[in-house]
Amino acid sequence: VGTSLRLRRDPPTRRPSSAAAMYQPIGEKKPSNKWTNMGLVSSVVANVALGAAICYVSFSAPAPLEAGLAMRTAPVSAPVVVAPRSSMRNFAFNNMRNSMRANAEGSLGLKGYIPYPDTTGASLTPLPSIEAKSPFSDELKATAAAIVAPGKGILACDESTKTIGKRLEQIGVPNEEKYRQQWRELLFRTPNMNEGISSAILYEETLYQNAADGTPFVDIMKSINVIPGIKVDTGVRDTFMDGETITEGLEGLGERAKKYYEQGARFAKWRAVLRIDPNGAPSMEAIEGNARSLAHYGKICQMNGLVPIIEPEVLMDGPHGIEVQAWVTEKVQAATMKALSDVNIEWEGMLLKPNMILPGTDSGKTASPEEVAKYTVEGLKRTLPSAVPGITFLSGGQSEEEATRNLNAMNKLYPDAPWALSFSFGRALQASVLKAWDGKEENIESAQKLFYALATVNGQASLGKFEGEHPATTGSLYEKNYVY
């Protein structure tokens, strides 16, 4: 065509800046755009349009310079998109899949914080505006730093009533409130437990529960400088492909967070669950949907005084190797960080609770603590901002000893990591203790000594200083498709 020709192009219209227009629900699609999803039609239209434009501009005057300065425009030229040869053959299937996917995305109903770009190029989505920090900003930073204080970690005792009932059933104890209360009091009143435990995640029942003598559990924890936290998600529901889930609990979260803060909670936890399987899970929709839910939750908590613990867990179920687990986990973490950035999260006032990188449980393979440490920390270095004060790893069904040794290896191999490498263990701190207690009052003291020992070795592991024998008395704690 030659350099003397200039393509004339009207700039795309700018999307209105109102909140309703700027923030779109996931998967919202206008009926007029339905054909843009079809690769074959798009490529044909693109090529015909390009040819027509080349002919047309020979007889057209160039657009005034000022027209392009008034607003941001899409690129003047773009590479020609060529549809794959299989597009016609898969046309009907892809159209049906896209329709189902849009419906699944739309069912999430997420609106408010995160801009949803118009990927067709018809208009441009503005960045979120600069927002004022949380009124609790300084407190959030101080709380987050205290949770990952050197040599300390989190006791995760936020099991739902149903899940703790399964634990109690293993030792022949009924799932009744008085027994749930006895079990949690055993933990909270363990002498010197605060030497290795900085904080504890509670279920709502426990946050409002009292010890046998009438002392609120929250007051017992505060008296030994253990920070109370609260699980705020309400569980998962199925969506997308078979077995994939989205975590719920956003409705009314602001009001609940305010109430939890008034009760004494200073941090919160929300667990998103993703899985790997040969059929294609996790889908990008599941990753994106859960990332956005985590971001909404995180922002709401920070605005109400609670440090959000962001937990995007990739289950270790499946026959895949450690490389696949690392690859998927990195993609999940990257999407989560992007979503958090979009809501203007205060990085210094949050914590991450990820899975360690292990081979799939059905792969028949094992990994040394050094391998686990390498895959886990290297992936985090590629995704997690250094402004985040700490990482509190979940145990995810590892044995108590395995979780401790893997955490210890991370801190030994990466002593200069930009974040604290700590723990937020549930089963890996409680399984042996529950077995030692056995629901009997005469066993409380010995069970508490074991809990103290487990807290101590994990505190040492968070410094890379654990050596010698491990006090655990149980083996693998793996449960397929674990929920709690």
Can you give a write-up of this model?
This protein is of the alpha/beta class and 484 residues long. It is 40% helix and 11% strand. It has 16 helices and twelve strands. An eight-stranded parallel β-sheet has the order 10-9-8-5-4-3-12-11. A two-stranded parallel sheet has the order 1-2. Helix 11 links the parallel strand 8 and strand 9. Helix 12 packs parallel to helix 13, helix 14 packs parallel to helix 16 and helix 15 packs antiparallel against helix 16. It is globular, with a radius of gyration of 26 Å. The termini are far apart. The N terminus is likely disordered.
What's the quick description here?
It contains 16 helices and 12 strands.
What structural category arises from helix and sheet content? alpha/beta
Rg calculated over all Cα atoms: 26 Å
List the strand order in the largest sheet. Answer: 10-9-8-5-4-3-12-11
Number of helices: 16
Q: What does the oligomeric state look like here?
A: single chain
Number of DSSP-assigned strands? 12
Helix content: 40-55%
Question: Which spans of ≥5 residues are poorly predicted at pLDDT below 50?
Answer: 1-46, 53-94, 96-113
For the termini, the CA-CA separation is 64 Å
